Amino acid sequence: MKQGRENQPLNRIEWVHRDDLHANGYNPNHVAKPELELLKVSILEDGWTQPIVARPDGEIVDGFHRWTCSADPRLYAMTGGYVPIVRLQPPATGDQMLSTIRHNRARGEHG
For residue 54, what are the contacts with CB-CB under 8 A and spacing of at least 6? Predict the structure, then answer.
């Protein structure tokens, strides 16, 4: 357990270029086109309200669809192609997969 505010990943939000991130090979979620468009509108209207969660090497643990949307020219132009991220340090790939599942299920989206 990460005790204290200073030890929380949100305390270390970074802005990185979207090209420095890459998808993982196991994300079970798929979003229909209307929902993906709604996500784009949400970011355009409200700004970036949630960071993408990534490993130190840039592999996305959570936020693949936000990252996908960031390629849209309108979103890209908002921040020059930069996206907010927090980096996790899971000890092994199996734990990273569990982290992805936990993030997905917490939102009720795990496929």
Answer: 21, 60, 61, 63, 85, 86, 87, 88
